[in-house]
Design a protein that fits this description.
Length: 294
């Protein structure tokens, strides 16, 4: 665990006092709309994931994608602690935890998938795709052996279970490195239209890859905003009354180790993130993203 994470955990009692006083004095907004970002949930992490959701439900209202849409667009007010669950990349464990954990708990999530990744039918080819595009330049030896992709029938199953499918580009490219408008259009728009046609749904949600501000661009955002109603980053922060649906903030929920396996943050650390005590580290990135929307 990094020093920064250790410090956040150690100072939790102090942080809680600050938040309580701040809410009473009015310089901290007591009403919150935050988004959690998960990736792969390994078999070893399923119990931790379940226990984390049980813990979250004690203090947070876990909203559906539709409720989130209405809150972020101002159709219904943001009151209390509200939380949306999302998953990136489209690994098979997403369907497993949806059926084993999310569905019995009545939780609906958004699954952001890569349109070319879902077409792959061979397990070894799926792992090659991960090593080349999702985790660029990673040796295939370091890709967990059980990683494979959601396919079309998996997405249809998730849709039938009441979940939402979002777009996560065509090839998981870093959009800031795209060299032409045609390439951006293929990564963002045309691939989403193709996937929507196959699934017979409207795809309204788009999450750009890698999540940091240097992996996105104003050109990519402007193009995406012509096709999607909601655009998601990987920048921590609260989605308040003045947050644009084109610049949604999300909180990462796990650490990725050298073998590329994801380990979910413990509850104290996630609690600190959700209380906003790491948001300052992303303030300049959020401002830059917001400036592209205007």
């Amino acid at each position: 665990m990094s020093f920064h994470h250790q410090l956040l955990i150690i100072t939790r009692p102090f942080q809680k006092v600050i938040r309580k006083i701040g809410c009473k004095l009015g310089f901290i907004n007591p009403n919150r709309l935050r988004v959690l970002l998960y990736h792969d949930i390994s078999t070893d992490e399923e119990d931790n994931f379940y226990n984390q959701l049980v813990w979250l439900k004690k203090n947070w209202n876990i909203v559906t994608p539709l409720q989130f849409e209405e809150m972020i667009t101002g159709k219904i007010p943001i009151i209390g602690n509200n939380l949306l669950i999302t998953f990136d990349d489209g690994l098979i464990s997403n369907r497993v935890v949806a059926e084993k954990i999310l569905n019995p708990m009545g939780i609906k999530a958004i699954f952001f998938v890569i349109s070319e990744f879902i077409k792959i039918k061979d397990h070894s080819e799926a792992r090659k795709f991960v090593s080349k595009y999702i985790i660029p330049e990673s040796s295939i030896k370091n890709i967990p052996s059980d990683w494979r992709n959601l396919q079309l029938f998996d997405l249809l199953a998730l849709i039938n279970q009441g979940h939402t499918i979002g777009h996560h580009t065509k090839m998981h490219k870093r959009l800031s490195e795209s060299t032409s408008k045609d390439e951006l259009k293929g990564e963002i728009v045309l691939s989403a239209q193709e996937m929507a046609l196959k699934l017979d749904i409207e795809i309204k949600h788009f999450a750009y890859t890698f999540g940091d501000i240097d992996s996105f661009s104003k050109e990519a955002l402007l193009l995406a905003s012509t096709h999607f109603g909601f655009i998601y980053s990987g920048l921590r922060g609260n989605n308040g009354n003045y947050t644009s649906p084109m610049a949604i903030r999300r909180d990462a929920t796990s650490t990725q180790y050298l073998n590329n396996e994801y380990k979910i943050f413990n509850n104290k650390l996630l609690d600190a993130f959700l209380d906003g005590f790491a948001d300052f580290r992303y303030s300049s990135s959020r401002k830059k993203l917001d400036s592209w929307v205007k």
